[in-house]
C-alpha cells in the first residue's frame, strides 16, 4: 500500500529533486496513512533519503543500469510497485523520469498526471493541481484508476526534513534483453557546471548584451550565485551561445527559484518557458520591455554598468553571509 | 517507409487563456489554433523523409471536427493523407489507446509525435503509445537519421545529449532540432490546393475508459506589480532577494 518514488541520482549523489520528491511523498503518504518506499539505482549509501521521510529503500545494483534506459527503468519501477503493492507512484520531472513515466503508467494500467505543483487537493477522489497552458493556467485533474502515477514539477514543494531513518534492502528486478534493445552509443554531458535542469538560480542573457564577447560578466554573475547560464532564442539563433543554453517555449523549460534576465525584452514565447520560476529579476534599458510585467523585481538600467556592480556587491554579500 | 505523425491542435502561444462553464472548460472563443510546435518539427522531418527517402506520411489527430483545419494544414505542408479520430482528447492514456488502434491498422514503421503539447504540456502520449504497441521509444529527440531499419537519434538529456541507436518500428517524441527552424514550412498555394483533395478519414474511437479527467481549471493569481529598484541602489535588490524573496 506504500507510496513509491524513484529517487534519481547522479555520480553517486541523490539529486535535489529526489529529496524534494521524498519530502512531498512523505506528506502525501501521511494523509493516506501509509509509508514511503524509494527505489534507487546503483547507490551505495541511501541513508540521506531517510532524513527526508523515506521509510524503506529498495536498492537495485545492476551495471546494465549505469546508463539510463527508459524501458528497463520502467520495468524495474513496475516490479517494485508490484512488490510493495503500491497504489501511488510519484516521479520527478527530469528529462529521464518524464521519459520513463508513460511506460510505467501503461505497464500498471494507471492514470498519469504530470506537472503536479502542489499536494493533492483531495485523496478520495484523488485530485491534483497541475500546470497547463505553458504556465498560464492550472488544471485540477482527477485520476480514476486504482494505481496512480504522478510527476511532481521541480521546486514546487521544496525540501522538508523529517525525523527518521530508512531501512534498506536489495532488490533485483528481472530485466530481459528486450529492455535493452536501444543502445546508447555516446553521451555528451557538461561536467563541473550547474545545468539548467538542476539549478536553483538561472542567469539568462538576451540580445541586449550586444555580442558573445560580453558574456564574461554574466558568467561572473552566475559563478557568484552558483547559477546556471541560459540565453534567449535570438542569442542561440545568432550563435552567440550554444543551443544547450536556449530557454523558452521551444528551448529548455526553467522552473528555478530565481531567474535573472539581462537584456531580454520578454517575448511571449520566452516567458512561457520560464514563467514557472518563482522569483524573476529583470534588468533592461527599456522601461517599456514587456518582461517587467511578469517580473518581481526590475531595474531599468544599462546591464554593462549594473551587472559588474551587482557581481561585486554579491561577492561582498556572500562573504558576510 | 510508412510514417505516422501525431498532431495536436493547440492554442497559439500568444492566445489569451480563459476558462468557461464554471471554469470546467477551456474557452476557445477568439482563440487561434495551430499545429503544436513540437509536432510541427516532427511533421517537417517526416516530409523530409518523404522527399529524400520516399516515405509515405499519414497525419493523425484525436479531436472534434474543428481540428480538421489543422490536419488540412499538415496535408498542405506535405503529408499524404490524414486521419481524425472523432473524440475529445481529455486523457493521455485514452488518446494513446486511440492512436495505438490507428497505428496497428496501418502497420507504420515510424511514429513521430511532439514530445509534449503546448496546451496541457502533459508529455504522456508518445511514451504511452510506444508502450501500448510494445515498440521502442526515444523521447526529447533533436536529431533523427534512418537507413533501412536502422535508427540513429540524438536525445536531449539534462546538461547535454546522447546518441542512441536502435531499429524500426519505433515511436519518437520530437522537438526543436529534428529540423532547423528555418526549414519549417509555411504552406504554399499549391500545397493548400492539393491538401483539399487528399484523403481525410474520420474514425470513431475505440472504447477505452478515461484514466484521468479534468475537474476544474484556474488562472494563476494576479501578479503584484514589479518592484522597481534604482540601478544606483543594488544593495536594495540584494536585501530584497535575501530577506523578502529568500532566494539567495
TrEMBL record, chain A:
Protein name (Swiss-Prot/TrEMBL): Electron transfer flavoprotein alpha subunit apoprotein
Source species taxonomy: Bacteria, Pseudomonadati, Bacteroidota, Flavobacteriia, Flavobacteriales
Residue sites binding FAD per the record: 207, 263-270, 284
Cofactor: FAD
GO molecular function, one term: flavin adenine dinucleotide binding
Family that this chain belongs to: Belongs to the ETF alpha-subunit/FixB family.
Organism: Myroides indicus
Domain of life: Bacteria
InterPro entries: DHS-like_NAD/FAD-binding_dom, ETF_a/b_N, ETF_a/FixB, ETF_asu_C, Rossmann-like_a/b/a_fold
Cofactor remark: Binds 1 FAD per dimer.
Entry keyword DNA damage: no
Keywords: Electron transport, FAD, Flavoprotein, Transport
BP GO annotations: fatty acid beta-oxidation using acyl-CoA dehydrogenase
Domain named Electron transfer flavoprotein alpha/beta-subunit N-terminal: residues: 3-184
Automatic annotation (TrEMBL), chain B:
One term of GO molecular function: electron transfer activity
UniProt entry tagged with the keyword Lyase: no
This protein's UniProt keywords: Electron transport, Transport
Cellular component terms (Gene Ontology): cytosol
All residue ranges annotated as the Electron transfer flavoprotein alpha/beta-subunit N-terminal domain in the record: 23-205
InterPro entries xref list: ETF_a/b_N (IPR014730), ETF_b (IPR012255), ETF_beta_N (IPR033948), Rossmann-like_a/b/a_fold (IPR014729)
Pfam families, A to Z: ETF
Keyword Kinase: no
Similarity remark: Belongs to the ETF beta-subunit/FixA family.
PANTHER family assigned to the protein according to its UniProt record, in alphabetical order: ELECTRON TRANSFER FLAVOPROTEIN BETA-SUBUNIT (PTHR21294), ELECTRON TRANSFER FLAVOPROTEIN SUBUNIT BETA (PTHR21294:SF8)
Protein's name in the database: Electron transfer flavoprotein subunit beta
Species, as recorded: Myroides indicus
Amino acid at each position: 500500500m506504500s507510496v513509491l518514488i524513484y529517487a534519481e541520482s547522479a555520480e553517486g549523489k541523490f539529486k535535489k529533486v529526489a529529496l524534494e520528491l521524498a519530502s512531498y511523498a512523505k506528506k502525501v503518504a501521511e494523509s493516506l496513512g501509509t509509508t514511503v518506499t524509494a527505489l534507487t539505482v546503483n547507490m551505495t549509501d541511501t541513508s540521506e533519503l531517510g532524513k527526508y521521510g523515506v521509510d524503506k529503500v529498495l536498492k537495485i545494483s545492476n551495471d546494465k543500469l549505469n546508463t539510463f534506459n527508459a524501458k528497463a527503468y520502467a520495468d524495474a519501477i513496475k516490479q517494485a510497485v508490484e512488490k510493495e503493492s503500491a497504489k501511488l507512484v510519484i516521479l520527478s520531472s527530469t528529462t529521464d523520469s518524464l521519459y520513463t513515466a508513460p511506460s510505467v503508467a501503461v505497464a500498471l494500467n494507471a492514470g498519469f498526471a504530470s506537472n503536479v505543483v502542489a499536494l493533492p487537493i483531495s485523496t478520495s477522489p484523488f485530485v491534483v493541481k497541475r500546470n497547463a497552458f505553458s504556465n498560464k493556467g492550472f488544471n485540477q485533474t482527477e485520476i480514476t484508476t486504482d494505481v496512480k502515477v504522478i510527476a511532481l514539477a521541480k521546486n514546487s514543494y521544496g525540501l522538508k526534513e523529517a525525523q527518521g531513518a530508512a531501512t534498506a534492502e536489495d532488490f533485483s528486478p528481472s530485466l530481459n534483453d528486450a529492455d535493452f534493445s536501444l543502445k546508447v552509443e555516446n553521451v555528451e554531458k557538461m561536467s563541473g557546471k550547474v545545468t539548467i535542469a538542476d539549478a536553483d538560480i538561472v542567469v539568462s542573457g538576451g540580445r541586449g548584451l550586444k555580442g558573445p564577447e560580453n558574456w564574461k560578466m554574466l558568467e561572473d554573475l552566475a559563478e557568484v550565485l552558483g547559477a546556471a547560464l541560459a540565453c534567449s532564442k535570438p542569442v542561440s539563433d545568432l550563435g552567440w551561445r550554444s543551443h544547450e543554453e536556449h530557454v523558452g517555449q521551444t528551448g529548455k523549460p526553467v522552473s528555478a527559484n530565481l531567474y535573472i534576465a539581462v537584456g531580454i525584452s520578454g517575448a511571449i514565447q520566452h516567458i512561457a518557458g520560464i514563467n514557472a520560476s518563482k522569483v524573476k529579476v529583470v534588468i533592461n534599458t527599456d522601461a517599456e520591455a514587456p518582461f517587467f510585467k511578469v517580473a518581481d523585481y526590475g531595474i531599468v538600467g544599462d546591464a554593462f554598468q549594473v551587472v559588474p556592480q551587482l557581481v561585486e556587491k554579491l561577492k561582498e554579500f556572500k562573504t558576510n553571509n | 517507409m510508412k510514417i505516422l505523425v501525431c498532431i495536436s491542435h493547440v492554442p497559439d502561444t500568444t492566445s489569451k487563456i480563459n476558462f468557461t462553464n464554471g471554469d470546467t472548460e477551456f474557452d476557445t472563443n477568439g482563440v487561434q489554433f495551430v499545429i503544436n510546435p513540437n509536432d510541427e518539427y516532427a511533421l517537417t522531418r517526416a516530409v523530409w523523409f518523404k522527399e529524400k527517402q520516399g516515405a509515405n506520411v499519414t497525419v493523425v489527430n484525436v479531436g472534434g471536427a474543428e481540428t480538421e483545419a489543422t490536419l488540412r494544414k499538415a496535408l498542405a505542408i506535405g503529408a499524404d493523407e490524414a486521419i481524425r479520430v472523432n473524440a475529445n482528447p481529455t486523457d493521455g492514456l485514452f488518446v494513446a489507446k486511440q492512436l495505438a488502434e490507428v497505428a496497428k491498422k496501418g502497420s507504420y514503421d515510424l511514429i513521430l509525435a511532439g514530445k509534449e503539447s503546448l496546451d496541457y504540456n502533459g508529455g504522456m502520449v508518445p511514451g504511452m503509445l510506444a508502450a501500448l504497441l510494445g515498440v521502442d521509444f526515444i523521447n526529447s529527440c533533436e536529431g533523427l537519421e534512418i537507413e533501412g531499419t536502422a535508427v540513429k537519434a540524438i536525445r536531449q538529456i539534462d546538461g547535454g545529449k546522447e546518441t542512441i541507436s536502435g531499429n524500426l518500428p519505433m515511436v519518437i517524441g520530437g522537438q526543436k532540432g529534428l529540423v532547423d527552424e528555418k526549414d519549417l514550412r509555411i504552406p504554399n498555394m499549391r500545397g493548400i490546393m492539393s491538401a483539399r483533395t487528399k484523403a481525410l478519414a474520420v474514425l470513431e474511437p475505440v472504447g477505452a475508459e478515461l484514466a484521468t479527467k479534468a475537474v476544474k481549471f484556474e488562472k494563476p493569481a494576479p501578479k503584484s506589480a514589479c518592484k522597481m529598484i534604482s540601478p544606483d541602489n543594488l544593495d536594495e535588490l540584494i536585501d530584497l532577494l535575501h530577506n523578502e524573496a529568500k532566494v539567495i
